Amino acid sequence: QVQLVESGGGLVQAGGSLRLSCIVSGRTFSWDAMAWFRQDSGKEREFVAAISRNGATTYYSVSVKGRFTISRDNAKNTVYLQMDSLKAEDTGVYYCAARYAGSDEDFYYRDSDFASWGQGTQVAVSS
C-alpha cells in the first residue's frame, strides 16, 4: 500500500521558517521524482517545488524561488521542503506527490503528472 505522509506544518509569523517532511512507503522511493504542491481555501492547487529522483535537479515556482528549498534523503524515503522568509500568501495545505521517473534528471511540476499524493499538512502564516 502506497503511503505519503506529510508533517511539519503549523502556524508561524511572517518572516519565519518551517520545514516540511514527507515520508513515502510502499514505493521504490529512489525511482520516484517528487514534488510539493499547495492549496489555499477557494483556490486551485498550485505547484511549489520539484526534485529529481537522485536530488541533483530541482525546480521551483517563481513565487517561492530563493525562499524555499526542496531536498530528499533516499536512505530515509523522505522528501523535505525548507521554507524560509515565509509570507502570508504562503498559507495553505501543502501536499507531497510522487511518480516514477525514467531517468535521474527527470522532474515534473504538473499535478496531472502525479498519481500518488499525501493527505496534506496545514501551513498558516500570520502577517
Structure, explained:
This protein is mostly beta strands. Helix content is 0%, strand content 50%. The strands form two sheets. Strands 2, 4, 5, 6, 9, 10 and 11 form a seven-stranded mixed sheet that branches. Strands 1-3-8-7 form a four-stranded antiparallel sheet, with no helix packed on it. The model has no long low-confidence stretch (mean pLDDT 97).
Topology:
Blueprint: E1 3-7, E2 10-13, E3 18-25, E4 32-39, E5 46-51, E6 58-60, E7 68-73, E8 78-83, E9 92-100, E10 116-117, E11 121-126
Parallel strand pairs: 2-11
Antiparallel strand pairs: 1-3, 3-8, 4-5, 4-9, 5-6, 7-8, 9-10, 9-11
Keywords:
4-stranded antiparallel β-sheet; 7-stranded mixed β-sheet; globular; 127 residues; mainly beta
User: Based on DSSP secondary structure assignment, what is the total number of beta strands?
Assistant: 11
Mean pLDDT: 97
Number of helical segments? 0
**Rg computed from alpha carbons, rounded to a whole number of angstroms:** 13 Å
Largest sheet: 7 strands, mixed
Q: Uncertain regions: pLDDT < 50 for 5+ in a row?
A: none
Q: What is the share of helical residues?
A: under 10%
- The helix/strand class is mainly beta
- Determine the strand fraction and express it as a percent band: over 45%
Q: Termini separation (Å)?
A: 40 Å
Taken in chain order, the helices and strands follow as EEEEEEEEEEE
Given the C-alpha coordinates, what overall shape results?
globular
